[in-house]
Amino acid sequence: MLVTVNGQPTDVPQGITVRDLIERLGLEKAVCAAELNKNLVPHREHRTQTLNEHDIIEIVTLVGGG
């Protein structure tokens, strides 16, 4: 199934959740925010919100520095 992740077309398995995608990206230890089709996905819904064909998802993490 094809979705767009942070602007890049990405093939993912059918039924993948936002949390599954975060883990696939190697970001499971980071604090992440997710936007699905221009709507914020609350953190509590990351494990239940599934992706559909042609969805557009943006995953952002906090980066420290100074």
- Distance linking N and C termini: 40 Å
Give the strand tally.
5
- Main beta sheet strand tally, sense and closure: 5 strands, mixed
The topology string of helices and strands comes to EEHEEE
CATH class identity: Alpha Beta
Q: Could you tell me the mean pLDDT?
A: 95
CATH architecture: Roll
CATH topology: Ubiquitin-like (UB roll)
Compact overview of the structure:
This protein has one helix spanning 18-24; strands at 2-5, 8-11, 32-36, 39-41, 56-61.
Give a description of the structure.
- This protein is mainly beta and 66 residues long.
- It is 11% helix and 33% strand.
- A hairpin with a 2-residue loop joins strand 1 and strand 2.
- The chain is globular and about 40 Å long.
Topology:
Layout: E1 2-5, E2 8-11, H1 18-24, E3 32-36, E4 39-41, E5 56-61
Parallel strand pairs: 1-5
Antiparallel strand pairs: 1-2, 3-4, 3-5
Question: Keyphrases for this structure?
Answer:
single chain; 66 residues; mainly beta; Ubiquitin-like (UB roll); five-stranded mixed beta sheet
